[in-house]
Q: What sequence folds into this?
């Protein structure tokens, strides 16, 4: 028996997120089907991050165990022949049988992409959040600075979370602007449910002038989710990648 | 009677191109429907560039004549309420009644976008041509240099053209690389049918090392379309904009 680690990219537009659901097609279900057809075994992959409906990934991670003799690095190519064009395995490799994609220290990086034009541009609509009002990126950066480091992010988290603790560490939080595109890039040791989309939603309000940058601090200190901590829409969110400490 | 000029952006993925066809939905048909519903008149728009199936636009141009009293600059907003999300009017303004989007001097700019990764990335697939082999951008630039200026582009043109002359002038032709994205940006006073996609197809072959850069010159001098002048796929092509001389 071998454990194979997959790095998976996908366009989340037409999926009900990662996790298998009774209604609607998911990334996990599509991967299970491709891996099972390829190996002839009944296989269920185990994913690192259960991204929401409509959220995209450049490098989510999943593992599965197999008795197949296919060389580990060939799985990528072989699975891509069997997957729909909106899911791709960008890398495949063997890992130890006890290697787990969730229960170990890692650094996740997300991007939240905003398009700041007067009219929503059709060719940007699937991979950006559209904001029609001018955004003040400097103010967004001021607000973002309060989130860097270790904090209790209870107020930046969906109330339906079942996390044991809401303390997380953000190691990097940059906002870059290129023409009409604004990208919030955030890395950390873990993120609560909806945390990146709430950070984006709040920073967009700061950029529009609805909130002062200091509002980010007062929300953080409130340690309770309120309606002021708005969630930005899913199509702007990309799981860029996951780095594991012992890799 | 007034003539209204529209600047139109669209995602060509789900359309059979610009021009009305008996089978399949087109951008022109969708615009006609929206303008006619809005004004209550039976209106047919007149487009500047009849882009092919699957080709995108950031700024194609169309005009129509109307007796409606809607202020010219309000058409943009009003039409966007009636158009599907993959078509958007980014600007609307009044022009003289004899202003024609095709029969006057203009400068068109296109981009051909290539994504040069090992595996086709799902979130790039709709708006890029995927090339899995490493491209030598310097060689592509060398090849592109032969195309700059006034030439007979007969060998870079679909044989089904009904243009009176195949002489055109390319005023700008740059190739930019940013990470894994390569963008061929080309401007000129007019382009023959499939000309930009053939330029892209040939330059991709140069980048892959199939053709030497000098091959571009020999193709050009042949003045006859051959199978060596390959057409790159439509989803990488963007009509960026059209500038009119007298505007």
A:
């Amino acid at each position: 028996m071998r454990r194979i680690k997959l790095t998976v990219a996908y366009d989340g537009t037409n999926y009900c997120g990662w996790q298998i659901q009774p209604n609607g097609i998911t990334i996990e279900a599509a991967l299970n089907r491709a891996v099972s057809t390829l190996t002839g075994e009944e296989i269920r992959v185990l994913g690192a991050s259960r991204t929401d409906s409509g959220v995209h990934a450049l490098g989510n991670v999943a593992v599965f165990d197999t008795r197949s003799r296919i060389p580990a690095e060939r799985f990528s190519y072989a699975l891509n022949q069997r997957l729909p064009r909106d899911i791709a395995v960008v890398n495949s490799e063997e890992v130890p049988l006890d290697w787990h994609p969730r229960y170990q220290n890692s650094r996740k990086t997300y991007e939240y992409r905003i398009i700041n034009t007067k009219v929503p541009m059709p060719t940007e609509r699937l991979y950006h959040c559209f904001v029609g009002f001018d955004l003040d990126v400097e103010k967004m950066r001021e607000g973002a600075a309060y989130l860097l480091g270790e904090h209790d992010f209870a107020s930046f988290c969906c109330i339906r979370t079942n996390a044991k603790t809401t303390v997380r560490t953000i190691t990097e939080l940059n906002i870059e602007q290129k023409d009409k595109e604004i990208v919030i890039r955030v890395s950390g040791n873990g993120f609560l449910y909806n945390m990146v989309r709430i950070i984006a939603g709040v920073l967009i309000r700061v950029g529009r002038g609805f909130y002062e940058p200091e509002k980010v601090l007062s929300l953080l200190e409130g340690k309770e989710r309120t309606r002021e901590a708005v969630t930005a829409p899913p199509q702007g969110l990309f799981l860029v990648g996951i780095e594991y400490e012992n890799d």
Summary: The two ends of chain B are 21 Å apart (CA to CA). Strands of chain B lie at 2-10, 46-47, 56-66, 87-95, 106-115, 129-130, 149-152, 167-178, 181-188, 237-244. The helical segments of chain B are 27-39, 75-80, 137-145, 195-208, 214-222. DSSP finds five helices and ten strands in chain B.
